[in-house]
Design goal:
The protein has 379 residues and is α+β, with helices and mostly antiparallel strands. The chain has eleven helices and seven strands. It has helices spanning 4-19, 21-49, 61-72, 77-97, 106-183, 187-218, 230-246, 267-283, 315-319, 330-336, 342-352; strands spanning 226-229, 251-256, 262-265, 289-297, 301-308, 356-362, 366-374. The strands form two sheets. Strands 2-4-5-7-6 form a five-stranded mixed sheet, covered by helices on one side. Strands 1-3 form a two-stranded antiparallel sheet. Helix 8 (267-283) packs antiparallel against helix 11 (342-352). The two termini are 70 Å apart.
């Protein structure tokens, strides 16, 4: 009975430690050291009481199991020494009692576990050294990648700025030429100049998106916080987005449930986020409906639900919708245009404000983007 009691007590505790990682980390070293010591001494003791008893679970099974176990789960040096001494002593008692070894052989057999332990320690040290150099190499590659990414972002920011200056001049001069052509009733010239003007506007919007993204990646994007009435910015958003939404024969519906609320935010960036989302909905919806529902979420957040009845997305497309320079499919960019930067920029700006963007979609039934932003953004 006394032989089986330690085994009965230790088995459920052992499994509890193996299955619970938090307990394993906390109690592993001490527990398994003493449990294995007790198991070996208990077996040796009961064998001495009754020489006809078997030394379960076998003469060599326990020491080998212990050595293999601690190769997988190493313990500290002191506990290892105690465990090896105890295990070796109990094992040698058994071998001596059954007449398998002589007293002159004890010294040599006693040294085997320590030689094995030294080999395991050397092996572990060597593996740790290899892991260290691998980690150093990975850290170096990571630093190089970050430097390259930062250099790319700064290059894009500088190039985008340099491109915008002459492009604004082209757009301005084309507007002037359109007015002069209209005054002189040169309709053919008006059509050609309008194409130049619209192409310039489109190119400028793409450059602005790249500039915004590069600023965010380079850490140069800042929020200019101020207090303002939400109703004022909502009127501007409606006025700007309505022609764009109705361009594809869509119906634009705004449901505002937060009348007369004061926000502390960056007006320009908030307007850009919402306009980007509405622009995206308008681009992928034809002869449908686009709804913007505005409501409070708790006492600290304002929520924008932008729903469309457009082409929708499957799960894989939805997973990559906020990836930079990514469209749902390769044909999407050709059919609908754009760089795929509007949504990633909106997401990054929203996160800068301490908010988040979520999305749900179904192919052929449309998409809903939910933007949650604090009413008072912290500096």
């Amino acid at each position: 009975v006394t032989y089986f009691i330690p085994h009965i007590l230790s088995t459920p505790i052992t499994w509890a430690l193996i299955l619970r990682e938090d307990l394993l980390k906390k109690y592993y070293s001490e527990y398994f050291t003493y449990v294995n010591m007790v198991a070996m001494l208990n077996g040796a003791y009961h064998y001495n009481l009754d020489h006809s008893a078997t030394f379960p679970p076998g003469a060599i099974a326990i020491p080998l199991t212990i050595l293999l176990f601690f190769m997988v789960y190493p313990i500290n040096f002191l506990n290892s020494m105690i465990l090896v001494l105890t295990t070796s002593t109990a094992f040698l008692i058994y071998l001596s009692n059954v007449g398998l070894i002589e007293s002159s052989q004890i010294f040599y057999i006693y040294g085997l576990p320590f030689a094995y332990g030294a080999f395991v320690k050397w092996s572990n040290e060597n593996n740790r050294r290899l892991d260290y150099w691998k980690n150093q190499e990975l850290n170096l590659l990571s630093i190089k990648a970050e430097s390259a990414s930062k250099a790319k972002s700064e290059f894009l920011a500088n190039m985008s700025h340099e491109l915008r200056t002459p492009l604004n001049a082209i757009i301005g001069y084309s507007e002037m030429l359109i007015e002069e052509a209209e005054d002189d009733e040169l309709d053919n010239y008006v059509q050609d100049l309008s194409k130049v003007h619209s192409s310039g506007e489109h190119l400028l919007s793409l450059i602005n998106e790249i500039l915004d993204l590069s600023k965010i990646e380079a850490g140069k994007m800042e929020l200019h916080l101020e207090k303002f009435q939400f109703s004022d910015i909502l009127k501007q958003i409606e006025a700007t987005a309505k022609p764009l939404v109705e361009k594809n024969n869509n119906k634009f519906i705004v449901e505002d449930k937060v009348k007369n609320i004061e926000l502390k935010n960056d007006q320009t960036k908030l307007r850009q986020i919402i306009f980007n989302m509405l622009s995206n909905a308008a681009k992928f919806t034809k002869k449908g409906k686009i709804t913007m529902l505005i409501d409070k979420m708790g006492s600290k957040n304002i929520k924008f639900d932008i729903k469309d009845t457009g082409i929708g997305m499957n799960e894989e497309q939805l997973k990559n919708v906020f990836e930079e320079f990514t469209q749902a499919e390769s044909s999407t960019s050709k059919d609908y245009g754009g760089t795929g930067l509007g949504l990633p920029i909106s997401k990054k700006m929203t996160e800068m404000m301490g908010g988040q963007i979520d999305s749900v979609s179904e192919v052929g039934k449309g998409t809903t983007f939910t933007i949650t932003i604090p009413i008072s953004v912290k500096a």
